[in-house]
């Protein structure tokens, strides 16, 4: 059985709170406040903070505290374009490399997405959504693509979370777009796959950048 360390527990709990906007009102906290909030010693909290800072989810300033900065509109635009560039390239390769096992795993993921939608669980839906796209990129067998895409999605998570909380119906539409992408992948027609992914991204762009 894999041993669970307090630093990992602190990391996961703090990360979930950041991604769901728990600190969005004040945008800052302190190591002391987190020690009290999570009822943990300073060491695991400090290690979790260092890890999250390396992922770009927060910034630690000596004698000032911990700050959570939402990406600016320019940064958000740049992140979205980088994600598109990676996934559109990867999906073309995926259309040629996808296996029956990949299809089974993606279908299982889609089922989990549907469960989260039925339960109106936005956070869990987005976790499965991220895994769906991570799996698609993973088929391309480029580890750098996967790691970069994960980082981008996490840095944009709160914005996606906010959009879906305001418009829960978008989860079902997104799920249907995922189904269309998988159906296109199963045909092996790369151009159709690209078309379906492009539709998915364009609708996401509208949701993200339309006031």
User: What's the overall average pLDDT, rounded?
Assistant: 92
Structural class: mainly alpha
**Record field, number of beta strands:** 3
Cα gyration radius (Å): 18 Å
Low-pLDDT runs of 5+ residues are none
First-last Cα distance: 48 Å
Q: How much helix is in the residues?
A: over 70%
Shape: elongated
- Spatial strand sequence of the major β-sheet: 1-3-2
Number of helices: 10
The ordered H/E elements are HEHHEEHHHHHHH
Q: What's the main sheet like?
A: 3 strands, antiparallel
Short description:
With 211 residues, the protein is mainly α.
SSE topology:
Elements: H1 6-19, E1 28-29, H2 31-38, H3 42-54, E2 59-61, E3 65-67, H4 73-97, H5 100-118, H6 122-139, H7 143-155, H8 157-166, H9 169-187, H10 190-209
Antiparallel strand pairs: 1-3, 2-3
């Amino acid at each position: 059985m894999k041993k669970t360390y307090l630093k990992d527990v602190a990391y996961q709990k703090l990360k979930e709170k950041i991604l769901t906007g728990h600190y969005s009102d004040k945008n800052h906290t302190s190591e002391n406040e987190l020690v009290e909030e999570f009822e943990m010693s300073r060491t695991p909290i400090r290690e979790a903070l260092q890890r999250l800072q390396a992922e770009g989810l927060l910034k630690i300033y000596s004698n000032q505290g911990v700050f959570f900065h939402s990406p600016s509109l320019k940064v958000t635009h740049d992140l979205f374009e980088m994600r598109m560039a990676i996934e559109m390239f990867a999906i073309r390769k995926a259309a040629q490399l996808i296996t029956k096992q990949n299809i089974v795993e993606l279908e299982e993921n889609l089922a989990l997405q549907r469960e989260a939608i039925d339960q109106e669980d936005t956070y869990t839906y987005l976790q499965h959504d991220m895994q769906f796209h991570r799996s698609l990129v993973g088929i391309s067998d480029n580890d750098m693509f996967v790691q970069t895409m994960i980082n981008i999605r996490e840095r944009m998570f709160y914005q996606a979370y906010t959009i879906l909380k305001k418009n829960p119906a978008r989860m079902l539409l997104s799920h249907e777009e995922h189904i269309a992408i998988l159906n296109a992948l199963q045909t092996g027609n790369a151009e159709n796959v690209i078309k379906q992914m492009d539709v998915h991204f364009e609708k996401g762009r509208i949701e993200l950048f339309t006031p």
